[in-house]
Model the fold of this input.
Amino acid sequence: MFKEYNPIENKIFRIIDNEGKVINTEGKPAIEDEKVLKAYKDMLFARTADIMAVSYQRQGRMYTYPPNYGQEAVSGALAQIMREEDWLVPAFRELGAWLAKGATLKDLFLYFKGNEEGTAFRNAKKLLPISVPIASQLLHAVGIGYSINYKQEKDVVFTIVGDGGTSEGDFHEALNFAAVWKVPVIFIVQNNQFAISVPVKKQTASVNIAVKSIAYGMPGIKVDGNDFFAMYAALNRAQEFARNGNGPVLIEALTYRKGAHTTSDDPTKYRTKEEEEFWAQTDPLKRLFLYLKQKNLFSDNEESELIEQYKKEVDRQFDEAENSPATQLEDVFKYMYADMPEDLKVQQMEYEKFLKWKESQQ
Amino acid sequence: MVQAVNNALEIKLADDENVVIYGEDAGVEGGVFRVTEGLQQKFGEKRVFDSPLAESAIVGTAVGMAIAGLRPVVELQFCGFVYPAFNQIISHAARIHNRTRGKYKTPMVIRFPYGGGINALEHHSESMESIYGHIPGIKVVIPSTPYDAKGLLISAIESDDTVIFMEPKRIYRAIKQEVAEEKYSIPIGKAKVVSAGTDITIVAYGAMIREVQKAMVMAKSKNISVELIDLRTIYPLDKETIVKSVQKTGRLMIVTEEPNTFGVAAEITAIANEEAFLYLEAPVKRVTGFDVIVPLPASEHFYMQTPEKIFYELERVMKF
Done:
């Protein structure tokens, strides 16, 4: 696959077209219908939650939130490929992948409501917290990869960055270290065309992002990131390659952020209607839905019913987050160190005195 | 001190298989100062190795290793070369524990030599400990003797928090001291009263301890009794030891080789102000570098604290 789709030729790996028709039967992964349906449902759940998250934010019930709208196939495929023992080192726009790894919507709502508890992902295994400083998380993935090799384990690490992140020094350092150390890390670039307002052509003069892999000595592939089957096949090949001790892989997932960068952003300032309409044709859920419908695996009615059911579940978890107990002063201090310095204990105590005084004034 | 640090690393490599050591030239050659010399030969390339040359990646990958259960000890070549790794230190090494509410820890040590007085070119002489002391979430240790270097480094490697371990390279080979072969540790966060006195407290650390001790010989000839405190740890700062001493002597001087403004010396001055105000018989004196870039060797002698300069300042505090 990596040879056939050598990124220097700028070919794109794609399995279904915009109407959900298989155009690459040879490349189509062997995946049972049931599993495809499950993946679709998970993507639908993530989209429903994502749209509702934006609306909670608009209602003033949540702080800034980075929407996933339009990019669900990347996380959707990843959700199917990741094993329990694999690591996920995320950025901040992979809702479906976090959920697959054991994070809950309640966690995420808590986090975007400003509570650190939400990014601990207490019930998730091998899931790192949301990482905001762009591309810096990729190095953690490489370090975890080193540890896997060192302990002779069979896990792999999936890590994610955006197209803007590929301009950061840490992106280059991570790919370089990963290839030199031959660690089992799969780098996934969600090329959603924009880093906030800056288009990808202002980030790089390379013919594509996948081609950068060649310079570091690892395979790379440019994939239609809105095509669930293409993402599934590419990720599957990559994890197999990495798990067998061949080192890292770079996957460029070509996608489109249909929403804003975050709820504080206004994309009408830097995008045209024509462009949005062009990408709307490639929508990942629409394509997979058409595929399932053609195979009589799913219907419009079933979809409407599911969405209603999902909305209730999302609301339920949002309510849970909203009704979580208020944070305590000690939460601010107690996790700063494994072994808390005396100094911090004193700062906390002094503030408690102030709180007592404040109370006595009422 | 080079041998003591090497010995601490060797002990921890031998007793904890999760300890790995890497950095630029840290493997085959044993580092530019030969601190890790011989360790790769003894423990193999998986555990002691050369990494590509990129400070951010050296620290960033260590964060990942630590999360996954290893105890990386990374070497950066000079204090002046740490800056590319700042984002990883401040945004991640110092925060993963807090960000994950204690689910993931970052038990890692970032070692690098610091300080002047070795006739080096630019970027090779600075003392930036106050920058690290200012970052919530990490601990900062500076030894002043071979004995302390070994015991403090063992504690640093065993700590579940990220520790910045700054080594005074000026005395890497200048101080000879018998150091016990066996394993021992010195607690992080505890200062040491090096010598007891009654007239004035001097707080110092790293290479400045030796300079202060030379100044104390001059002080003795003038019948000034100095209590010398070796900080050992920049953060968490041992306030108690400092305050107790100041309450006894009534005078305080801090000797460092960092720039003056917003420094460790300023912090200690504030502590004296907050906790020993009524005991002070003279203003607290900061004896530090200037707020300049450490000059190249031709002018470096103007910048460095010498025993004469320390004694000069000491006498002025005493005569206040």
Observations:
- Chain B has two domains: 2-171, 192-318.
